[in-house]
Write a sequence for this structure.
């Protein structure tokens, strides 16, 4: 995606705001260090992103004991986004590879010892408008001891989650009330 | 304990049991058996009444969403106590051993479960040390459109590929299967207001 268009909401590019977001993320004492930024992209860029996603060749991928959803790689690695993420996470990020996930009725991701993720920082860009959590499809983190941390689905938001040791994520099953609906988000780990 | 108190007499004839042995071991995608009208009608009614008095807790995880009782082996309810005693009786254990040719210890787990609209159990194999046979007794009827079917997966090179068999719950039916790395199964989402009510658990070896 070109860089001529301003991508990130200018409000979030102000030094003071960026500092607040970084502080909120890095200085969290929570067992679930995370920050969600709403209205993250500019309206024009968000429309462009939606258009780009709709033109992707998203293919269904099923591993019965782990997941059922459609995925596609997506290029979304502008300097503006990398600089923002570098600043907030204090990690040098020159490139970031996202995967677009599309979940519809009956899709899911479950935990499986063969697919454990190493600790890292998840970046989740939500591109689903008006999603009802009662339909399922919620990206959910769990510490494996019964505590779960669901990420509220909010269109045009970006979530940064520090996945500490022992923290794993799954995608809640999409039930029949989500029939004919599409749950879309982009994910990357840095 | 006489099995006649709980089971329809047709299932206790020696010839039938021999046929079940063959069917159980030959059934695909992994050894299993469905015995319709296994429980006597009057027992289904009193079991439903007894379960109606039990506390069901919602269970949610990456793998499932449904409501379940605590382990009914410790229930104070006389009907459920008697049902647990029937399932773990030497006679019933022998009945199951004859059909499955699997050595059982007599230890069982027993839970009541209710699946309501949108509830589900995603694919898994049930493997836990000691579990030999998974079983479920359906206590009410569902139609295909209600969802809630038990679905069995075929595996290729020990990797589950697709659902090849489904059981739509019918009151009084007993379904059981051998627990192994191949016993991948799921309970499909319930799609209507019809509840799916079962007593289920495992026979241990």
């Amino acid at each position: 995606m070109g860089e001529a268009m301003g991508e990130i909401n200018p409000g979030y590019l102000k030094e003071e705001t960026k500092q607040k977001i970084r502080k909120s993320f890095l200085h969290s004492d929570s067992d679930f260090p995370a920050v969600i930024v709403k209205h993250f992209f500019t309206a024009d860029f968000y429309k462009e992103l939606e258009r780009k996603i709709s033109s992707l060749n998203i293919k269904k991928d099923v591993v019965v004991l782990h997941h059922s959803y459609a995925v596609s790689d997506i290029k979304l690695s502008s300097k503006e986004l990398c600089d923002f993420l570098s600043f907030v996470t204090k990690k040098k990020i020159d490139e970031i590879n996202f995967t677009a996930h599309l979940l519809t009725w009956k899709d899911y991701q479950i935990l499986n010892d063969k697919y454990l993720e190493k600790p890292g920082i998840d970046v989740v860009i939500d591109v689903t408008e008006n999603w009802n959590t009662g339909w399922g499809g919620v990206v959910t983190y769990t510490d494996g001891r019964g505590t779960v941390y669901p990420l509220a689905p909010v269109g045009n938001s970006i979530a940064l989650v520090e996945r500490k040791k022992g923290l794993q994520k799954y995608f809640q099953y999409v039930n029949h009330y989500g029939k004919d609906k599409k749950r879309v988000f982009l994910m990357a780990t840095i | 304990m006489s099995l006649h108190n709980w089971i329809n007499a047709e299932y206790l004839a020696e010839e039938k049991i021999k046929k079940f042995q063959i069917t159980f071991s030959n059934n695909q995608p992994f050894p299993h058996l469905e015995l319709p009208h296994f429980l006597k009608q009057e027992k289904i009614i009193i079991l439903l009444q007894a379960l109606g008095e039990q506390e069901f807790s919602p269970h949610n995880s990456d793998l499932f969403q449904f409501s379940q009782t605590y382990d009914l082996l410790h229930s104070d309810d006389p009907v459920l106590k008697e049902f647990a005693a029937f399932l773990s009786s030497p006679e019933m254990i022998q009945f199951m051993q004859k059909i499955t040719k699997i050595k059982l210890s007599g230890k069982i787990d027993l839970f009541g479960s209710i699946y309501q609209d949108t509830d589900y159990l995603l694919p898994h194999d049930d493997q836990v040390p000691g579990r030999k046979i998974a079983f479920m007794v359906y206590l009410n009827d569902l139609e295909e459109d209600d969802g809630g079917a038990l679905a069995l997966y075929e595996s290729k090179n020990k990797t589950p590929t697709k659902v090849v068999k489904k059981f739509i719950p019918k009151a009084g039916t007993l379904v059981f299967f051998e627990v192994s790395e191949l016993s991948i199964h799921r309970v499909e989402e319930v799609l209507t207001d019809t509840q799916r009510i079962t007593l289920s658990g495992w026979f241990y070896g």
Chain B touches chain A through 17 residues (CB under 8 Å). Chain B has one domain: 3-204. Helices of chain B lie at 14-26, 41-52, 78-87, 90-100.
